[in-house]
């Protein structure tokens, strides 16, 4: 029988990130978020942390060479529809990964992770400069929290809305097409500012009191990446990204509301 088997095109996402063996953050969180959204996930490891819910014991950065070999292996075989980056470790890794991302041919969501929730540095001193110089200009969307935004802008950000709006605009001037600034608590709510390249919108969510937020940033950026992978490449990228951001912050806000306490810490 002459039967044509047509394989549906797959939504595939690649994360380039560090390992959190407790499964709350890092590439483990990213892969779970991809899976939850029905997206096939791949991961390139940049660093290995030894940690559980009580804290981080050790952080070992991989060589830029080893990171790039993993990247080349998967990219030459399984092209993703979106790439997400998390903890990138060193300025050297950022420089070499960025050189490759120039020709990746898909949207890039950059979560400029700098320290773990427990305060362990996840990047070296050269990384902030490398983010500014080579990574942000390549990014479709960056998702810094307030601390990361201050490091990238090299200035303090005030608590008033005007300064948050100005900081969002200044982040976009560093090169990314779009910015999601996770501003944190504002007037008793959780505030995010999204700059699409044209206008800034403020997105306000209910704030939930819990310490169990390890990996919330990773999960948000990974969910946004997954929703971009699921959206039609023919549609306007800013529109696809805005829809992905709306979905991602609602999903992660819900997850934080019902966050279980799995370990002895949080
Ligand atoms: N990546 C790794 C490997 C981590 O261990 C952490 C936090 O511990 C993060 C990223 C950032 O996690 P969060 O989403 O809580 O900012």
TrEMBL record:
**Which pathway is recorded for this entry?**
Cofactor biosynthesis; thiamine diphosphate biosynthesis
Q: Which domain of life is it from?
A: Bacteria
Which residues are in the Pyridoxamine kinase/Phosphomethylpyrimidine kinase domain? Answer: 20-266
- Indicate whether Ribonucleoprotein appears among the record's keywords: no
Q: Which GO terms of the molecular function aspect are on file?
A: hydroxymethylpyrimidine kinase activity; phosphomethylpyrimidine kinase activity
Q: Name one Pfam family in it.
A: Phos_pyr_kin
What's its EC? 2.7.1.49
Q: Which InterPro entries does the record cross-reference, listed alphabetically?
A: HMP/HMP-P_kinase_dom, PM/HMP-P_kinase-1, Ribokinase-like
Which key words are in the record? Kinase, Transferase
Please tell me whether the keyword Plastid is annotated for this protein: no
Put simply, this protein is called: hydroxymethylpyrimidine kinase
Organism the protein comes from:
Aporhodopirellula aestuarii
GN (gene name): thiD
